[in-house]
Structure formats: C-alpha cells, structure tokens
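Page 47, continued from p. 46.
Same chain as before, 307 aa.
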Amino acid sequence: MDAARLARRVNLLGPWLRRTLGGLALKISLDAGLGCPHRPGGLGPGGCAYCPPGGAGRGQGGAVAKQLAQGLERLQSRSRKGPTPRVLAYFQAYTATNAPAEVLEPLFMEVARHPAVAGIIVATRPDCLPPATWEILARMARRRPLWLELGLQSAHDPTLARINRGHDVACFDEAMAQARDRGMKVVAHVILGLPGEDISHTNATARHLARQGVWGVKLHNLMVLAGAHLAKEHRAGELRLWSREEYAGAAAAFLARLPHGVLVHRLAADPGPDRLLAPGWASNKDAVLAAIAQALEEANLRQGDLA
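Result:
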C-alpha cells in the first residue's frame, strides 16, 4: 500500500527496472574483498564516522564467480513457480574499485560476460576512480547496462569533514564530470540527519545533485551502528538524532527538489538488527516509508515540484 502511495509521487527504481528489463529484476550482492582505502592502512584514519568496522553490503566471501553462481542458484530455486528474475550483479561491499586496473579488469569482465547478468552496479568512492579504472568501467558499460553508486552523503564540506568522509564535494563533482564524459549513469548516496545539519542543508544537497545531473539517488537516514565512531558520541550524549517525523519531512522536501526524471533507488536504510543502536524507529522500514508517503501527501508534494 505504501509503495503504491509513494509511486504516485516519486519516480521509483522498481517500475523503471520492470519497463527496461522486461520483468522483475533482483540484485546479487558481490564482495570482491577489496576493502576500503579510507580505513587504517589505506588513505584515511579510521573510515567514515557512521560506518562500522565490517562495512556494509558484505557478500558471502570467496571468489566472485562462486558468489554469483550461488546467488543465481538461490534465485532459480525461489522462482520455480514463476519466471526467473533478471539479475543485477551488485559489487556492493566496501569500495568496489579499490584495486589496480590489472586486478579489477578480469574481476569485472568475468561478471560482465556472464550470460545471466542483465546489468551491473558498482559501488565506490569518488576518490577511488583513477583514469585506468574509468576505462574499465566504460568497457563494461558497453557490454552490459551499468551504473555507478557514488557516496556523497552531503554537499557541505564542513559536514564531510565532521564525519571524516575523506573527500570534499569537488571530488564528487569531478567524478560526476568523468561519468558524464563517458555517458555513464551515477546514483548518489545521501544521508539525511548528519551531525550539524538541518533541513536547509539537505535541501541544498538536493539542489546540488540536481545541478550535477545525477541519474539516481539513494536516501539513508542517519543511524548509529555498533562499532562506528558515532556510537561513542551517542553513548556520551553528544549526538542528536532526528525523529522519524523529522526524517520523513526532510525526505519529502528533498524529493520535491529533485527533477522528476531522477530515479529514486532507496528512501530509507535497512539496518541489521544486530548492529542498530539508535534510533529505534530505523528498525521499522515500512513505518518509515509510510511516514514519507504521509509527509508528501500532507504537503501536497511530488518529486520535482520544487526543482
């Protein structure tokens, strides 16, 4: 029900995938074991403030080809009574381009050549895309539909410094320029409710992404996860977290400032219950989506109304 309410006001990814790929499409998360350059031993001291030691989106481990085969087997077993979903290979874990080109090319191209793969998603950081990597991604995009997921989180440099993001807004903008030059799609990750930010900051981030011409956006609510640096601030009472209603209102205002053509890939985070410390409302994603739908309806807003 909430999905239908949202679909009337937001340009959601699901309907686009069904139209483009001709049916249901599901992701298989892959972990290439490449780690993150912004952690100890890499480019930065300790990673982003909101990220736990285990990172996000970890796969099953082992060779990528084996992970893909296992994922395909699971999908086929689940769909024996109906059509097999189209498969999107999702290099999700950590920073999926954190390796030299000679490592990335065989890894990526093996997946790109797989006949069951209908599209590829590569999640990475804007500061981990050297020229040789861009060329590999461009070759992949010529073989299969491909989009990049790039973390921005906020279009405000003081906020990025506060959360120890490790790059500035200009770095993201340069990655966007490189992607545009190659005709590649970019999905920007944004967190609403970051320390020191209010709705004026998140509205400005929406306007920045609109100017940059992003193809898609993923919205996340700020969460405190076990092991993340923010957990220490939370325990010390130094971190103010938004209420569900504040998040929903900010998400509605954000969406209204995005052009209608931008695809919304996510509206709220999916925290693992074993890692979520706060806020408690983040554990009920359905209620968060219902709150966003309600906020849009009460304000009589649709995506793009204020773009």
